[in-house]
Amino acid sequence: MVTSGVLPAIIAGNTVVVKPSEYTSLSQKLVVDLINQTGLPDGVVNIVIGGSEVGKLLVDSSIDLAWFTGSTRTGLDIYRKCGDKFIKALLEMGGSSAGIVMADADIENAVENLYWARFLNCGQVCTAVKRLFIEKPIFDKFVSQFIERIKKAKIGDPLQTNDIGPLMNKKQLETLKEQVKDAISKGAKVEVGGNVITSDDLKNGNYFESTILTNINSDMEVMLQETFGPVLPIVEFETLEDVVNLANDTEYGLSAEIYTSDLEKGRKLAKT
């Protein structure tokens, strides 16, 4: 994601300091190194590596704009500091994006697209679909086909020919495990997955099974929080009014996906 902030800035004639997440520093440094190999003058694109203290120092320094992708809490802190200094802040914070599949949708197309919309990068994408709503007449058929699609995916080292890799750290693995545990304790049904992977070849990584949950209610953590990993709650709905209320029942936003063969219906739904 570093390029989405760096490239517009340098095209507009600015210099940039990148502070990557302390959990993904090496990959972000590689991107910055590649950018600098294009022939930019020294000092145009820079990188500093560290934790939250480094980020605080950067925001407190003489900058003209802060571009941040990360948690809502950290984003709000940055926004306040930028407001105090009367400088701009571009923030992309937590997301719990909704996917909606109407009964008239092409189910095979929706299954394939929503598989990647949820499980790309092991579900660790801020705009990923994290809550999925399926109209009642096709609910069972959709869930059945989605489960079969998940079973085809290969989990393992992302540098090899696999589809789904590990979570970024042990802390996130534990968070995801607790979110699934909370859902089960409140009545959720695990359709597939639901466990930390402990097989010999993957036991040293932060691997979690691709998971589908049904029988969902609104007080489960998988609906209230951002689920950053390969877990997807699927909810049945009956009317447009119902699904609008369900999709909007979150403190997060960011994006949404709608699947229908009726373009006008899709536009109407998108506007609500």
UniProtKB/TrEMBL annotation:
Q: Keyword annotations for this protein?
A: Oxidoreductase
Q: Which InterPro entries match?
A: Ald_DH/histidinol_DH, Ald_DH_C, Ald_DH_CS_CYS, Ald_DH_N, Aldehyde_DH_dom
Q: Where is the Aldehyde dehydrogenase domain?
A: 1-271
> GO molecular-function annotation terms?
oxidoreductase activity, acting on the aldehyde or oxo group of donors, NAD or NADP as acceptor
The Swiss-Prot or TrEMBL record describes its family as follows: Belongs to the aldehyde dehydrogenase family.
What is the protein name for this chain? Aldehyde dehydrogenase domain-containing protein
Q: Which organism is it from?
A: Candidatus Blackburnbacteria bacterium RIFCSPHIGHO2_01_FULL_43_15b
Q: What is the lineage of its organism?
A: Bacteria, Candidatus Blackburniibacteriota
